[in-house]
Write a structure and sequence with these properties.
about 50% strand, globular, 4 helices, about 525 residues, single chain
Length: about 525
Amino acid sequence: TNTLTLDKNFGLNRLLAVAGYEAVEYGIGRSLSATKAGYFSIDPAFRTVTNGAAITAANSGFNTPTRLVSQFLRADYSYNNRYYLSATLRRDGASKFGKDYRYGVFPSVSAGVRVSDFLAADFLSDMKIRGGYGTMGNQRAVSPFNQYNNFGGDPGSTYYDLNGTGTSSLQGFAANFAGNLDSKWETQVTTNVGFDASLFNSKLQVSFDWYTKEAQDLLFTRQVDATYGNAPQAQINIGDMKNTGIDLQLDYRTDITNDLKLDATVTFTTYKNEITKITDNIDYFDSGFGDLRIGSFNRNQVGRSISEFYGYQVIGLFQSDAEVDGAPTQDGAEPGFFRYQDTNEDGVITGDDRVFFGNPNPDFTYGLNLGLTWKDFDLSAFFFGSQGNEIFNYNRWWLDFWPSFQNQKSADLLYNSWTPENTDATTPKASNKSNFSNNTQSVSYYVEDGSFFRLRNVQLGYTLPTDAIAKVGLSKARIYVQGVNLFTATKYSGIDPDINNGGDTAFGVDFGNYPLVKQFIFGLNVSF
């Protein structure tokens, strides 16, 4: 890394400029392996690769050096500590991309003005309005061998008895990776406008941002038909996506008395996600296959949010044979099974009647950090919440339908499912039939409100008086008790609404997880 810095004041003007060149080699991995079996002795000295009688797995190896090279220029200018202007220009190159797309150029600029110099308000200690536009490159998702077609083989899949003896085989090769020379940098384009303010003698700090972030040339694993073979596919550039929202942070610090001090931080974040492009002549793709049991339940479509839930909208349960006969034609329909919405009103329930019926993206998330000290005692707590997101509770496929494996079943199925006498039920009747109207489709029945509010952490501590611990050679000692995940307020029926699986294009799906662990921790911190 080499940099050249200019830091100069010209009267009321100040200029800080940095130019640099950087070359990095990292993430180097090398491997060589071979596996044998058929040893007639278990003596460790004998167990070498050359002494094995049979190859049990493919000999393998890889070499994955990765290199980055960057040139960058940054300049920060201010006038009278009131007006600010900053600009950055980067040119980054990555060995992960083919030679025609190895480099990307990423500019950014921002400006600000300290408006508190023009405002006469006793409550306003400081305030700055700012805005910016910038681009940033991303290559993290790309593997070092993304551009290459790789071939290999192993005895189980590519060795063939071409000699016809039945006792020997010849090595063959198959595609291990389908590369792409045309992959290039993914670009994040961000625009933001906001302000920072200090109020009431700096007791209250406010930071606000409105932002829009657009991802261009998204790097995504290439999707191919099964006829292409089973070789892993390269990352390719496909589609654009945009997020728009606000970030708000409030920090409040005050001394309530000489001994009692309060520190509180509130965060509030919103974002609206929209897929703006996938690729030419393609407006959507599906993700999230429920082990091929109910088909895909996430659709990513231009003009919609990423990973929205898609399928048949349940409008109730069939109550009688007469209702079945009078409803649009639906395969497997009978009293006690799902009745689906005839979206296009053509009198037949088909794939064309599927709709979007849920969104895993929250309306907003929020957090609260509290810190309170009184003399030698300290209390801290962290709360976090998510509002407006929905969850596809795939666990209900296992629990609420009798033919979905004969394992543990839900109380709703056993005691509150549909019967001719219990027509207000929402859970289909206990039937061993598995068909289109029961448990083989992605339907809105699985979607629940995933909003939650959780106490993630709370800790109470006491710092022992210095004069009391100095006698035993300690400079500081603190004992504490801590609780983790003590409570969660939610309407979600699953084990934990704070799920984190499914991937970028199929998240918000609960496949089942371990129950949330509540912890009680007792600790001691000492300094000598």
